[in-house]
Specification:
It is built from eight helices and 15 strands. It is α/β, with parallel strands linked by helices and about 300 residues long. The strands form three sheets. It has a seven-stranded mixed β-sheet, sandwiched between helices. A hairpin with a 3-residue loop joins β13 and β14.
Length: about 300
């Protein structure tokens, strides 16, 4: 079976490696262009490109694919049996959907139809799910609306973040996509339509998603903090300047007004919705280094009745 692989970040690498180990012919890898990264804005290759080059596979990095005649001619000349799409980050155009006999097979990091969209891992954690998983599907013209092929579940630990969960899902998904290919080879794959009435969305994250809403319960805020790692994280304001929250947990004890911040012993507590409190463990005032709650309390000395987000 001849495959073209489309993927960009580290999440896609295990699938590419496993496809090669399974003996599939991968004559071309498609990934996004190199991008500037970090404070120095160093031009950096995507992880999938690095892996492909290590394996000696030709790589193309088109900026656009929908009306790219050169790229289309290259793909049509290869006549792949299937195109594997794993976190590629581009909408697949109609001509590409129709090219391979088995279609464009996608690995999606949720249990579809829940969490369709660009950030399924982040939103599943942020919404307090305790179980997630991966789904293989055949891409159609919609947003993660294609027919499902196989699913596999995975628990979300209470202390999981998007950073810790993503690598486990990528490994699980790699195995599932190879199992999907084997199913097609054996003639045993039976696509299943999604129930659109059960669909939820996981839209691309925005900076504002990290702003803490203290009308939510402490548990809800904690889940969003875990889900929105490493970006946009969780932040609020204190005395008119941004305060980033790097670590927190639901607390117990004092009854506080929503957004009211107070020091209790070595603890820095803030009032949240449903009469709950959030224990801020590590914070970073604007322009300063990360610090413990104790160091923040000693340095800034929050006053009675003082609020966050003001």
């Amino acid at each position: 079976m001849k495959l073209v692989f489309c993927g960009t970040p580290a999440f896609a690498v295990p699938t590419l490696k496993l496809a090669l180990r399974a003996g599939y012919d991968v004559p071309l890898v498609v990934t996004q262009p190199d991008r500037p990264v970090g404070r120095e804005q160093t031009l950096t290759a995507p992880p999938v490109k690095t892996t492909a080059m290590e394996e000696g596979i030709p790589v193309v990095q088109p900026e656009k694919i929908r009306n790219n005649a050169e790229f289309r001619a290259q793909m049509e000349a290869l006549r792949p049996d299937a195109i594997l799409v794993v976190a590629y980050g581009r909408i697949i155009p109609k001509w590409m959907l129709e090219l391979p006999r088995l279609g464009n097979l996608n690995l999606h990091a949720s249990l579809l139809p829940k969490y369709r969209g660009a950030a399924p891992i982040q939103w599943a954690i942020a919404c307090g799910e305790t179980v997630t998983g991966v789904t293989t599907m055949r891409i159609d013209a919609g947003l993660d609306t294609g027919d499902m092929l196989l699913k596999a579940e995975m628990p979300i630990a209470a202390d999981d973040t998007a950073v810790t969960l993503a690598p486990r899902l990528s490994q699980l998904g790699a195995s599932l996509l190879i199992e999907t290919l084997r199913g097609f080879e054996a003639g045993e794959m039976q696509p299943t339509k999604q129930d659109d009435s059960q669909a939820t969305l996981a839209p691309i994250l925005k900076k504002e998603d990290g702003r803490i809403d203290f009308s939510l319960s402490a548990t809800e805020i904690f889940n969003r903090l875990r889900g929105f790692q490493p970006w946009p994280g969780a932040f609020t304001t204190f005395r008119g300047k941004q305060l980033t929250v790097h670590a927190a947990r639901p607390g117990v004890g004092l009854q506080l007004e929503q957004a009211e911040v107070t020091v209790s012993g070595d603890r820095l507590l803030v009032g949240c919705g449903q009469r709950s409190v959030l224990d801020l463990m590590e914070v970073q005032p604007e322009g300063k280094k990360r610090m413990s709650a104790r160091d923040f309390a000693n340095g800034y000395r929050p006053q009675p009745g003082e609020m966050l987000g003001r």
